[in-house]
Amino acid sequence: MKTETKKGAVLSSKEGIYKKYIKRPMDFILAGIAIIILGPVLLTVAILVKIKLGSPVIFKQDRPGINEKIFKIYKFRTMTDERDENGELLPDSVRLTKFGKFLRSTSLDELPELWNIVRGDMAIVGPRPLATIYLPYYNDIERQRHDVRPGLTGLAQINGRNTMMWEERFAYDIQYINKITFWGDIKIIFKTMLKVFKQEGVSVRGTARVEDFHKHRMEQEKSTFLIDYSYTKGGNKMLLIDENIVLRAIEEKDANFLKDMINDPELENMVIGWSLPVSSKIQAEWINNLNSDDMKFIIEVNLIAVGMASISSFDFKNSVANLNIKIKSDEFRCRGIGTRTIRILINYCFDELNLNCLTANILEYNNPSQKVFEKCGFKKDGVLRSRIYKRGKYHNVLSYSLLRREYQKCER
């Protein structure tokens, strides 16, 4: 039996029962037990904070909870109150002591949040509560992280803790809230304890190189996309990010996904250049022998692979390249993913590669692709007659192009 949430996500009856009736009572009981068992640790840390950092021992700050309701989060203090000659607080990096760094790296400063869990402000597992200043900068998908209680730990924390890029963190948050299960929570709790013990994926909060989210989003809005790494012949990964859509370099793990795409006869009929069928082994060999002069990407939406995109046929002498995208199934088509993907590629080609012209070749009967490229400003140059053999006969291919000056004029 399945039920549908207000966001349209489908949950099994077991998932719905756990989330609705079991998760909160279990959090209350476990947090209460943890406070009793860890009482000596809490007392010891409190005394050390008092001696080394002074009063108050507990740091309180506003954070958005479920449905963006503001609550006070409790943590052990990790910084001094040192001020400059004008009475202004010194930067966090100066006030964060060696002892404070130890508390943060071991997550001991988070222990008072157990009281937040008992009060009902938080859960043991859920998206981490972030600063209230970030609230105006979330997009609609990212804002869904507030549909549940924030957690002491979460899916993002066991996949990198506080060293990940913001979009990746939020994608893990959305993945979690779309499938909240008992065993999923248990797994996250145990993996968190292992991470803390091994000190994996940790950069001490306040010293990490990941910038504040509101600053990150403002910079992102200036350029409409973000480049994290350079795509080189050396094999470095590249990410092009626009909100919840990520274009990343193809990896060996994508062999099965690409095999399924290529072996889909319906999709094969709509694209140029594929032949049926291929095996996982053949696809893996293809990935290992990718032409480094082309840029090929996996299209991900909320960490789910939905298609493939490429920038190829580079002619740097004349500043020209060809764009191509393929979306796997009807489930992900007609949702704006193709249009947004093409715009990410256009921005990268014109702004970073400084190209002058982009081209695209589309089968004459592939009307959906024609509409998507035309929506992005591409104009039809002409017809390549009887160029592709599919469906038992030859078909025309339509040639499209977009000039840099045309796109810039359209953007203005």
TrEMBL record:
PROSITE patterns to which the protein is assigned, alphabetical: GNAT
InterPro entries: Acyl_CoA_acyltransferase, Bact_transf, GNAT_dom
Transmembrane segments: 28-49
Gene Ontology MF terms: acyltransferase activity, transferring groups other than amino-acyl groups; phosphotransferase activity, for other substituted phosphate groups
Pfam family, one: Acetyltransf_3
UniProt keywords, alphabetically: Membrane, Transferase, Transmembrane, Transmembrane helix
Alphabetical list of Gene3D superfamilies matching this protein: 3.40.630.30
Name recorded for this polypeptide: Sugar transferase
The organism of origin for this protein: Pseudobacteroides cellulosolvens ATCC 35603 = DSM 2933
